[in-house]
């Protein structure tokens, strides 16, 4: 990746949503650096994102291109636990491993790590995933801090490296989930504990109205 592409990548919110027309934020940054993509194709970054890319490329700022979407609040995926069938398809789709679960068991979203990319929505066979606004009244970079972007980028890099190595997607594979080995049991315990913590956290947020 060129130095310019690296700087452009640093200026993106790291949602990995593909709405720009590229497979990830890095792909979009490289395309912008090469002059193959406009600076107006990142809805999560919004108008502030366009200005950041304009400053780095020397191009004139332009309005966000509606062909790629509109600026809005950062969204949070929420799984209806009553309808989840444990198919694991959303685990594979999530670019930041923000979903935990196992084969034939209920899945849940770790809100802290969800980028609102929406990639889990179309793969769910029972439509049990919905989106909620995580930042009411705040859009674009007002809804996304540099720290959150950095964490999301790192989690995506780990996810991508695991896929390149052919390792199982998600915290646990369906084969391991159904296995009887001691290692499988330990992994199952870890996942179930994570699910319990996520449910407790979600319940606490609902109770406080956060």
Explained architecture:
The chain is mostly helical. The protein has two domains: 66 residues, 3-methyladenine DNA Glycosylase II, Chain A, domain 3 (Orthogonal Bundle); 134 residues, 2-Layer Sandwich (Alpha-Beta Plaits). Helices cover 40% and strands 7% of the residues. The chain is built from seven helices and four strands. Strands 1-4 form a two-stranded antiparallel ribbon. A two-stranded antiparallel ribbon has the order 2-3. Strand 2 and strand 3 form a beta hairpin. It is globular. 35% of the residues are buried. About 6% of the residues have low confidence.
Concise structural overview:
This protein is mainly alpha-helical and 210 residues long. Helix content is 40%, strand content 7%. It has two domains: 3-68, Electron transport complex subunit B, putative Fe-S cluster (3-methyladenine DNA Glycosylase II, Chain A, domain 3); 75-208, 2-Layer Sandwich (Alpha-Beta Plaits).
């Amino acid at each position: 990746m060129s130095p310019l592409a690296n700087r452009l990548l640093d200026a993106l919110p790291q949602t990995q949503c593909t709405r720009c027309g590229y497979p990830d934020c890095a792909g979009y940054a490289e395309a912008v650096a090469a002059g193959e993509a406009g600076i107006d194709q990142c809805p999560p970054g919004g108008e502030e994102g366009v200005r950041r890319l304009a400053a780095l490329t020397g191009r004139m700022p332009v309005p966000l291109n509606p062909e790629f979407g509109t600026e809005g609040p950062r969204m949070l995926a929420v799984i209806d636990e009553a309808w989840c069938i444990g198919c694991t398809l959303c685990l594979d789709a999530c670019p930041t491993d923000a979903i935990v679960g196992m084969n034939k068991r209920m899945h849940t979203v770790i809100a802290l790590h969800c980028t609102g990319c929406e990639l889990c929505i179309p793969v769910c066979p029972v439509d049990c995933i919905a989106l909620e606004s995580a930042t009411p009244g705040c859009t674009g970079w007002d809804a996304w801090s540099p720290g959150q972007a950095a964490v999301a980028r790192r989690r995506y890099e780990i996810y991508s490296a695991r896929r390149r190595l052919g390792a199982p997607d998600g915290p646990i594979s369906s084969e391991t989930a159904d296995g009887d080995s001691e290692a499988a049991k330990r992994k199952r315990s870890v996942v179930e504990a994570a699910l319990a913590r996520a449910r407790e956290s979600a319940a606490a947020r609902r109770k406080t109205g956060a």
